[in-house]
Amino acid sequence: MLSTVSEKGQITVPKRLRDQLGIRPGDRLELVEDAGRLVATKAVPGDPVAAVYGILDLEVSTDEAIDALRGPSDAM
C-alpha cells in the first residue's frame, strides 16, 4: 500500500488499515525508525494519577496534612 508525503510532511493512513488497526481521529501514533523503516504504533495514553504519584514531598504524614487542612477528625 502506498501513501504520498505531503509538502507539510503528512501522510494519509489508508482507510482499510485504519479500520483494521482501530485507528480513530485524534489517536496519537508513535513513530520510530527501525533499520531504515518507519514504524508507527498507537500511543497508549498514560495514567494521569500515575504520572504525578509520589512527586509531593510532605514534611508530615498524610493524616497530619489532612488534619492541618480540614481540622482534626473526630476520633472513634
What does this 3D model show about the protein?
Helix content is 28%, strand content 16%. The protein is an alpha+beta fold and 76 residues long. It has one domain. Strands 1-2 form a two-stranded antiparallel ribbon. A hairpin with a 2-residue loop joins β1 (29-34) and β2. It is elongated and about 70 Å long.
Core attributes:
76 residues; alpha+beta; two-stranded antiparallel ribbon; 2 strands
Element layout with pairings:
Blueprint: H1 15-21, E1 29-34, E2 37-42, H2 48-52, H3 62-70
Antiparallel strand pairs: 1-2
Concise account of the structure shown:
This protein has three helices and two strands, in the order H-E-E-H-H.
Radius of gyration: 24 Å
Number of DSSP strand runs: 2
Note the beta-strand portion: 15-25%
Instruction: List the helices and strands in order.
Output: HEEHH
Shape: elongated
Global mean pLDDT = 89
Assign the structural class, choosing from mainly alpha, mainly beta, alpha/beta, alpha+beta, or little secondary structure.
alpha+beta
Biggest pleated sheet: 2 strands, antiparallel
**Main sheet: strand order:** 1-2
Total number of helices? 3
Total number of domains: 1
Low-confidence stretches: none
Distance between the termini: 69 Å
Give the fraction of residues assigned to helices: 25-40%
